[in-house]
Amino acid sequence: xSDTATFDESVFQELISSNLxxxxxxxxxxxxxxxxxxxxxxxxxxxxxRIAKRQSVGFIYLAIGAFVGFLSCVFTITNIFPNHVxxxxxxxxxxxxxxxxxGLYFVFE
Length: 109
What we know:
Blueprint: H1 9-18, H2 22-31, H3 36-78, H4 85-108
Helix pairs in contact: 2-3, 3-4
């Protein structure tokens, strides 16, 4: 096969949807006859795409955790459930913190 120096969007989308490891992607690109510089570009863009997906998932977790924490704060201040204040204080707050920490893990890893 001939060396391909241009970036092919269809190959890029195929590689992203395959969820292969970086070494497997590199082997597949080499088998297609793509030169080393183009392989480096593909790998760089694939890594960037994967990081962007993880960060967007992390921000979604952060938003959900912040909302649950806000609800916990409002329910505590208004004392809307006087018989179940332990649920609001301990369960909702702990749940919010756990979701936020998971979101931070996805964002900063």
